[in-house]
Prior knowledge:
There is one protein chain. This protein is 80% helix and 0% strand. By secondary structure, it is an all-alpha fold. α1 packs antiparallel against α5 (74-105), α3 (51-59) packs antiparallel against α5 (74-105) and α4 (61-67) packs across α5. 14% of the residues are buried. Keywords: Membrane, Transmembrane, Transmembrane helix.
Amino acid sequence: MNLTIRDYMAFFTAFAVMFIYYLIWYLFRYMSWPWHNSYNIPGFFLLLLSWPWSEVLFSAQSYFEGLNIFGKYSSQILLNLLTSIGFGLNVVIVRKVFVGVKLMLK
């Protein structure tokens, strides 16, 4: 499977969207700023779209919380990082499937 520049751009864009969303979520939580429940809806869909990766990571959440290497929120940041990578991988996989189907239909 050959990866193109567009695949890398899709990966990093998807990674950045999810990572920044959850960093903002953690910032609001840490600072005790008001966070309306409707703001959780995009986060739910981002987790849903990173499904196979997020399921494995959240089942091992107690292990990540036990690490606590860099401070109180290190496990959440590590989970955020790994789930964002999974979301980026899913976007690239879906993109490759659609490009392959498009080439087959030509």
